[in-house]
Write a structure and sequence with these properties.
Elements (H helix, E strand, L loop, with lengths): L11 E6 L9 E6 L5 E6 L12 H4 L1 H5 L9 E3 L8 E3 L2 H19 L4 E5 L6 H14 L3 E3 L5 H11 L15 E5 L3 H4 L1 H14 L2 E6 L11 E4 L5 H15 L4 H7 L3 H7 L5 H8 L3 H13 L3 E5 L9 H15 L8 E3 L11 H4 L10 E3 L3 H5 L14 E5 L3 H4 L3 H8 L5 E6 L11 E4 L8 E4 L5 E5 L12 H11 L12 H7 L8 H7 L1 E3 L4 H4 L59 E4 L15 H7 L3 E4 L1 H6 L7 E6 L2 E9 L7 E3 L35 E7 L3
Parallel strand pairs: 6-14, 7-13, 8-9, 8-11, 9-10, 11-12, 14-15, 15-16, 20-24, 21-23
Antiparallel strand pairs: 1-2, 2-3, 4-5, 4-16, 17-18, 18-19, 20-25, 22-23, 22-25
Helix pairs in contact: 3-18, 4-18, 5-13, 8-11, 8-12, 8-13, 11-12
Length: about 700
């Protein structure tokens, strides 16, 4: 039974941080009873960004912490891979087997045969990133973390030169808030907190731009439902109208942009009629939006991660952030464009991640192409040897990675050893050789930073974990000891030691941060709004980016170089059709946005989440349903060159004709044939610096025979 060790005493409120893969990184107040168990979880009212509001998923976290299906013992596979046969094993024996498997792989094929694989199941710096220290110490294969942020980050930084922007709390001071490419109600609830405050206190208009009528769009004063991957066309038309109607701030651009004259000439043929044909919006909708933002100086463009899910996402993000520069919105409090604040945090992570041990000659493998890597694709393997051993922490690639059939085929290889450190028996854990039970966030110390805000926050250990589970840091240090590298810098330190060593810039240690709870790192107005110049060497915003030479937060190493069809990227902001466009054989485009009560593949184990979501369904416009003889609730089959799956149809006007929407990453066994939606998604890299275009898929659709 999963019962935390009691910490007998009085009940109290503990302060922590939501660890999950979300830009909000909410500050939390957590009830802790006299029995040492957590109770209600609330957003911290003292934190100026969280502002007392959190999502329903995290508010019920006690249900997850004490879930009867939580992993509590190390397990060794018995029988065939994926057959579900397991036996208990001690921690000592489990770690010995993992270390021995790594040694065998290294002896047979070299150090690059081992691939530590992780992502953002926890956003805690220590528990997430310590795996890289082991990687670099042992010269294991590198990890190019492309799957989530790369495309959007790249497009934003191509314009601004820095992954920073206006204080996101300034949304509350805007006269118009444009939420573009994010379903904030479902995925970043605090965006709505500040946007709604602007509406209530200032009469601000709320504009939402997305591809279907999601919960955020339903709260909008102006809702623009465009075709997937066509955002740049809308942005270009808005800038065209701004130049045409006198709303472009020519004086601002003369001082702060590289080539406004060239941009205006380029946009001469990118008017609203042109954009309407591409986006599916009406000319009137485009004109009304352009007029609203053109006449509203304090317009805050909140640009989301929807951009990063399309093959032209970097170009679309660059075009969208260019709108704020044409209008001069950056000059005003409550104005400008914001995507992520990752560039403001000055954490020293060299020791934590073992960066001084990094060997640039070791290959880097693309996490998004795990299916190709594990099935021997020579390009994905960088024309080197096979991966024969893996340690996986904080991610579930058998569910969330594209090209799912290749991923499963790779995991089923008899010569591949896989250890998974997890909290639940995920689709990936089911395919492992060794499964290790992991702590949850209130059971260990860690440090967090908010991509969507401006705080560094401490998440201290609040309750004792079950005696049979272990932290990620413990696993890394114990493997380092067995593999002969524990003497190297960074190993053997506690979480609190690591936290202190990341904070030298702030002249604070872990104890000081525990007292203060968080550090507000927001730069001053002039810095945040680029009032003294943008982040490029000449201080100018780039309307004409160098798509293959500009530094970016997650640019692939020189050994990989630019990725995807980068030669096709435009000189100025523009719509380019490098998307997976519909064709005669695949007349529909499929997008796979998040479900409200799931977070990637987390929370899918919760009964109340599944009851809220119902079942895996595909949203189909009534016109498309009628043309294909499909009624609501019918079983339909979707397919493309990667595979096919069956789902139930949800006939709804919330999507556009020709566009199919499947919300959420469900466990594979929740689907009719035991395969998830990522059977249909591709892993071809996005230009120019990589990424996974998970919302950019062409498919065919047909009704299944009764």
């Amino acid at each position: 039974m999963n019962v935390a060790t009691p910490n007998i005493g009085k009940s109290r409120i503990g302060h922590s941080v939501c660890p999950h893969d979300c830009p909000s990184a909410c500050a939390l107040d957590i009830e802790i009873g006299a029995d040492g168990r957590i109770g209600k979880v609330r957003g911290s009212a003292d934190n100026s960004y969280t502002a007392g509001v959190i999502c329903a998923k995290v508010a019920r976290y006690a249900d997850r912490l004490y879930h009867p299906d939580r992993l509590l013992k190390p397990l060794r596979r018995t029988g065939e891979k994926g057959a579900g046969g397991w036996q208990d094993i001690s921690w000592e024996d489990a770690l010995d087997e993992i270390a021995n498997a790594f040694v065998r792989a290294e002896q047979a094929h070299g150090t690059e045969a081992v691939w530590p694989y992780y992502y953002a199941g926890t956003m805690g710096q220590v528990q997430r990133d310590s795996i890289d220290r082991l990687r670099h110490a042992k010269r294991y294969s590198g990890f190019f973390d492309s799957i989530c942020t790369n495309t959007a980050w790249t497009g934003y930084v191509m314009g601004t030169g820095s992954l920073t922007g206006p204080d996101p709390r300034e949304m509350a001071k805007a006269d118009c808030v444009v939420i573009w490419g994010t379903n904030a109600v479902a995925t970043q609830v605090n965006v709505m907190t500040h946007a709604v405050k602007a509406r209530k206190e200032r009469g601000a208009k709320l504009v939402v731009i997305d591809i279907y009528d999601n919960p955020t769009m339903k709260q909008a004063d102006m809702a623009l439902k465009l075709r997937p991957g066509t955002d740049a066309a809308l942005a270009c038309a808005v800038m065209h109208i701004a130049f045409r109607d006198g709303h472009a701030d020519r004086a601002y651009m003369k001082s702060f942009a590289d080539d406004p004259v060239g941009l205006e000439a380029h946009l001469a043929t990118r008017g609203p009629e042109w954009a309407a044909e591409i986006t599916g919006l009406s000319v009137d909708e485009i004109e009304a939006f352009a007029r609203l933002v053109g006449e509203t100086k304090r317009t805050f463009f909140r640009l989301g991660y929807g951009f990063t899910r399309s093959r032209n996402g970097s170009v679309s993000m660059h075009a969208a952030v260019s709108v704020a520069t044409v209008l001069g919105s950056w000059q005003y409090e409550g104005g400008g464009a914001f995507h992520n604040n990752g560039g403001i945090y000055r954490l020293d992570k060299r020791e934590l991640m073992g960066l001084d041990l990094l060997d640039p000659d070791i290959r880097e493998l693309d996490q998004s192409q795990i299916g190709r890597v594990l099935t021997g694709d020579p390009v994905a393997l960088r024309h080197r040897g096979a991966v024969t051993a893996m340690l996986i922490q904080n991610t579930n690639p058998a569910s969330i990675a594209p090209e799912q059939r290749l991923v499963r085929k790779g995991f089923m290889r008899d010569d591949l050893f896989v250890a998974v450190h997890e909290q639940f028996m995920t689709d990936t854990a089911k395919l492992a050789d060794i499964v290790l039970p992991a702590t949850m966030f209130v059971e260990h110390d860690d440090l967090y930073r908010g991509g969507g805000h401006q705080h560094i926050l401490l998440g201290p250990k609040l309750v004792e974990p079950p005696s049979t589970v272990r932290t990620n840091l413990f696993v890394i240090d114990e493997l380092a000891r067995r593999l002969g590298v524990s003497h190297l810098p960074g190993f053997g330190l506690s979480e609190r030691d690591h936290i202190t060593r990341m904070l030298p810039h702030y002249e604070m240690d872990c104890d000081g941060l525990a007292e203060d709870k968080w550090i507000d790192c927001q730069p001053d107005f002039d810095t945040a709004h680029y009032a003294k110049g943008f982040g490029h060497p000449d201080g100018r915003f780039r309307f004409r980016p160098n798509w293959t030479a500009t530094p970016a937060p997650n640019r692939p190493p020189a050994s990989i170089g630019p990725l995807g069809p980068h030669a096709a990227l435009p000189e100025f902001p523009d719509y380019i059709e490098v998307i997976e466009a519909a064709d005669d054989e695949h007349p529909f485009r499929l997008a796979t946005p998040p479900a409200r009560t799931y977070l990637n593949s987390s929370f899918t184990e919760m009964k109340w989440s599944r009851e809220r979501e119902g079942r895996p369904e595909v949203m189909i416009h009534p016109d498309d349903a009628g043309a294909n003889g499909i009624a609501d609730g019918d079983v339909v089959r979707l397919g493309n060159v990667r595979g096919e799956i069956r789902l139930h149809a949800k006939v709804t006007g919330e999507t556009k004709p020709g566009i199919l929407i499947c919300e959420g990453i469900w466990p594979n066994d929740a689907h009719l044939d035991g395969e998830g939606i990522n059977v249909l998604t591709g892993a071809d890299p996005v230009a120019p610096y990589g990424g996974a275009a998970l919302h950019d898929n062409r498919v065919w659709l047909r009704k299944e025979a009764a």
